[in-house]
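ok, trying the design again with the full structure, not the truncated one.
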């Protein structure tokens, strides 16, 4: 990583002018910033170093990588350093037109595309002498267009997951410039495939280590799901025995299916023993053939489950499976980016939530699931984004109150206190003017208690933020909600209510 070329441009006005025209890497445009406020999904810093005449911006990331963002909402890494990015910009003027090319296209096609594009540029202004002067001044070697396209392709592939750019206000992600990259399941399964190969090779330390590690065991079983081999029966039995320690998991069911597909009735005692591990496994593996079943019955049971829940194509697996397994392996950025793009898709097209059996109604559960996933990842801005959309789509008074209550909790955690106060006002509106009978018993159930509790917690947060007038107003609203609760529901929060009232009095 080096910024040698950037220092030269900043020190030498002639070189800076050449970089700006004809190569459209203009340091002077850095002072204007990007067309909108942006941030990295991963949370790293961004330094604006240059812009172009289309409104695009060149940023330097924490590790020196250069991220280019256009004015239309697309972004991508174009080099591991400013030197590398400048070498590309100078060597491939109009480089954005080559973002979809790859070494697989072959040198002839690449050279033809570059030659045609540069001939068009030369009709308006020169680039050859200017390129030679910049290369000499900066010490850049003369590389072939095919080599530079290969470098660009490799750099763009590094954009996800670590360098995904977000609109800072809305939180939606910029589209990816260039190649799409591998599907999510490929990096998620990589370690499992390696472990599966070690198990097949008879590595006894792997048999022990993989079986004892819940995450490695899960990933290896998923790898075996999509790479089924005749000789895997013993290692599958081994993994099945150990997966039972985790009680009922999707991977336990998968292991049982993979063992059962062989139709070996000698495996029935093992399968039945696993089923009886605990209450959850007994329920989750219900329908399993009983002792004395035939090989056909065992296979029929396994095939039915395989067809309904598993299969052999990883692209058919729900994205939630890969997100969960990514998180288990510490691939936080990969999981976060996948969730953000999923939320973006729903935000842009809410028809994706329509129920197939009832097209006029929406299944909003995916949005609440996204909010929980983001919260578990510690990404409160995205959790809020998902929860706000979820709350806006609720129909019944109960669902509106519940969704707004959760939203208020998230807003308080994020320090968005005025927004949290507004959300709780919407909750009270649903409680006292419901418009339907879904909340007729809210005073006796946990929802009422949770709502009252959040009022007091937010009141305390307002006191801590030196907002005494707002705290007093919310305390009055909290007491009104508390006064509606049944004796049983209210008892659990009386101590919090008293402590909150004392804090408000102390704050004056």
């Amino acid at each position: 990583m080096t910024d040698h070329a950037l220092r030269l441009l900043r020190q030498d006005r002639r070189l800076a002018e050449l970089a700006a025209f004809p190569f459209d890497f203009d340091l002077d445009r850095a002072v204007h910033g990007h067309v909108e406020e942006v941030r990295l999904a991963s949370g790293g810093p961004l330094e604006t170093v240059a812009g172009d005449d289309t409104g695009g911006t060149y940023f330097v990331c924490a590790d020196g990588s250069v991220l280019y963002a256009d004015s239309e909402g697309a972004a991508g890494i174009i080099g591991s350093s400013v030197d590398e990015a400048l070498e590309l910009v100078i060597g491939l003027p109009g480089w954005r037109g080559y973002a979809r090319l790859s070494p697989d296209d072959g040198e002839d096609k690449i050279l033809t595309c570059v030659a045609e594009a540069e001939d068009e540029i030369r009709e308006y202004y020169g680039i050859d002498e200017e390129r030679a002067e910049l290369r000499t001044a900066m010490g850049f070697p003369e590389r072939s267009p095919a080599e530079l396209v290969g470098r660009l392709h490799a750099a763009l592939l590094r954009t996800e997951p670590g360098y995904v750019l977000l609109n800072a206000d809305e939180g939606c992600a910029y589209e990816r410039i260039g190649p799409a990259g591998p599907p999510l399941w490929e990096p998620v399964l990589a370690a499992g495939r390696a472990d599966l190969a070690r198990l097949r090779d008879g590595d006894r330390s792997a048999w022990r280590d993989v079986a004892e590690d819940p995450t490695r065991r899960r990933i290896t079983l998923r790898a075996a799901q999509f790479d089924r081999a005749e000789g895997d029966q013993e290692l599958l039995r081994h993994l099945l025995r150990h997966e039972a320690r985790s009680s009922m998991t999707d991977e336990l069911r998968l292991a049982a299916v993979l063992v059962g597909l062989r139709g070996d009735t000698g495996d029935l005692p093992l399968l039945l023993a696993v089923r009886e591990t605990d209450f959850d496994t007994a329920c989750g593996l219900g329908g399993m053939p009983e002792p004395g079943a035939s090989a056909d019955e065992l296979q029929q049971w396994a095939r039915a489950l395989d067809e309904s829940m598993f299969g052999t194509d990883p692209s058919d697996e729900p994205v939630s499976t890969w997100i969960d397994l990514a998180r288990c392996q510490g691939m936080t950025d990969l999981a976060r980016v996948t969730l953000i793009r999923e939320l973006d898709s729903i935000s842009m097209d809410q028809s994706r939530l329509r129920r197939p059996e009832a097209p006029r109604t929406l299944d909003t559960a995916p949005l609440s699931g996204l909010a929980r996933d983001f919260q578990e990842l510690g990404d409160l801005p995205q959790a809020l984004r998902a929860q706000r959309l979820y709350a806006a789509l609720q129909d019944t008074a109960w669902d509106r109150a519940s969704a707004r209550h959760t939203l208020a909790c998230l807003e308080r955690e994020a320090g968005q206190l005025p927004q949290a106060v507004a959300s709780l006002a919407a909750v009270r509106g649903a409680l006292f003017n419901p418009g339907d009978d879904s909340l007729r018993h809210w005073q006796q159930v946990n929802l009422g208690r949770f709502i009252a509790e959040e009022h007091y917690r937010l009141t305390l947060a307002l006191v801590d933020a030196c907002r005494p007038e707002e705290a007093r107003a919310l305390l009055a609203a909290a007491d009104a909600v508390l006064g509606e609760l049944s004796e049983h529901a209210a008892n659990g929060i009386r101590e919090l209510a008293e402590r909150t009232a004392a804090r408000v009095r102390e704050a004056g």
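Keeping the full-length input from now on. The two ends are 57 Å apart (CA to CA).
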